[in-house]
């Protein structure tokens, strides 16, 4: 149902009924046979919206007035930037409804493949801390009409939403972001303009160690400008003494890739010391690590429990990052081999194994498929393998080589149900069947969901 007013289509006001949410948590309605995308709108709600842009097949709009509210609409929390920011698509939804949405998202992804029909999907693990859980953030620095903004891009634009107090961020991240914004304005540091391709400061990356209440800050710049960035760094460590490491990353390339290849230590420690459970971890700026520590700890423990490694076997951890899962497996296995493409993360992983006195871990940097081929003779059949790939999932060649190793168990940790289901279906054709899947709410207030899948050989399943 839609009631258009008599205006041009852009900036036109329309009354809509939201029919469903897409995978990103954006409300969907239909108007004149076109899909209308409405952020911060829930199924069943009647809303008055204004059209922001119109494409060939869909329309982008934002809510002007909520005519009716869905029972799932949250009254516990909210964010003034929810209409325009890309960071928390489900924050307007009651938390129990968020969990149902994510459970269904995993179920729908797996339901696409008949080979996964018998896999048991366990109830999702809810997060103990639905707000303030993010211990790392990569924020855009922008400037418009003389005012500096630090936050995320506004929907469908390169305008920066100045977030200030993000409800998902650890409080120390918010404190640092506001302090940096204030000093950039005071010093008049040249902010990057993507439209012109000119300027110095592009991004602010902050990683917090919740266990120590310390932070590492990385300024991403277009060039190695030592003077301006050093002034900013020295001011920041005085203003916010919890900042124990300041780095500069140089990224002169066009596009939305945040970190460049060169990172320079400016002040303090070269890495941030953190702790998850009883594992101590050193994390460098370019290394990946989970943003939600309590849920990361639960994932580590579930992987270890399912793996049930023995002292006479070698465990394999692909896409191992800084070694968190590998080191947890090393407490039971005879040896663990971690493979990771990012060399800085591999150095962190080796340091972390020494830091935790685990001398049965070793790590290799390189392409997963190539290293698996090189190590084929070394990896005996019947071992345990763990994969934790990025959102795009595993390459088919990696899965083929993994299956050829004939592991007694494969554990797949994923942040994308769609690519997880695709890869599990392919593994089923190679003789590895999915027994069970544990969804995890790693990212409350967002549409994203983590999953852990346990696979066994077909004859054992």
Automatic annotation (TrEMBL):
<dbReference type="InterPro" id="IPR029063">
    <property type="entry name" value="SAM-dependent_MTases_sf"/>
</dbReference>
<dbReference type="InterPro" id="IPR010280">
    <property type="entry name" value="U5_MeTrfase_fam"/>
</dbReference>
<comment type="similarity">
    <text>Belongs to the class I-like SAM-binding methyltransferase superfamily. RNA M5U methyltransferase family.</text>
</comment>
<keyword id="KW-0489">Methyltransferase</keyword>
<dbReference type="Pfam" id="PF05958">
    <property type="entry name" value="tRNA_U5-meth_tr"/>
</dbReference>
<feature type="binding site">
    <location>
        <position position="388"/>
    </location>
    <ligand>
        <name>S-adenosyl-L-methionine</name>
    </ligand>
</feature>
<dbReference type="GO" id="GO:0070475">
    <property type="term" value="P:rRNA base methylation"/>
</dbReference>
<dbReference type="InterPro" id="IPR002792">
    <property type="entry name" value="TRAM_dom"/>
</dbReference>
<protein>
    <submittedName>
        <fullName>RNA methyltransferase</fullName>
    </submittedName>
</protein>
<dbReference type="Pfam" id="PF01938">
    <property type="entry name" value="TRAM"/>
</dbReference>
<dbReference type="GO" id="GO:0070041">
    <property type="term" value="F:rRNA (uridine-C5-)-methyltransferase activity"/>
</dbReference>
<dbReference type="InterPro" id="IPR030390">
    <property type="entry name" value="MeTrfase_TrmA_AS"/>
</dbReference>
<feature type="domain" description="TRAM">
    <location>
        <begin position="7"/>
        <end position="65"/>
    </location>
</feature>
<keyword id="KW-0949">S-adenosyl-L-methionine</keyword>
<dbReference type="InterPro" id="IPR012340">
    <property type="entry name" value="NA-bd_OB-fold"/>
</dbReference>
<keyword id="KW-0808">Transferase</keyword>
<feature type="active site">
    <location>
        <position position="415"/>
    </location>
</feature>
<feature type="active site" description="Nucleophile">
    <location>
        <position position="415"/>
    </location>
</feature>
<feature type="binding site">
    <location>
        <position position="290"/>
    </location>
    <ligand>
        <name>S-adenosyl-L-methionine</name>
    </ligand>
</feature>
<feature type="binding site">
    <location>
        <position position="340"/>
    </location>
    <ligand>
        <name>S-adenosyl-L-methionine</name>
    </ligand>
</feature>
<dbReference type="InterPro" id="IPR030391">
    <property type="entry name" value="MeTrfase_TrmA_CS"/>
</dbReference>
<feature type="binding site">
    <location>
        <position position="319"/>
    </location>
    <ligand>
        <name>S-adenosyl-L-methionine</name>
    </ligand>
</feature>
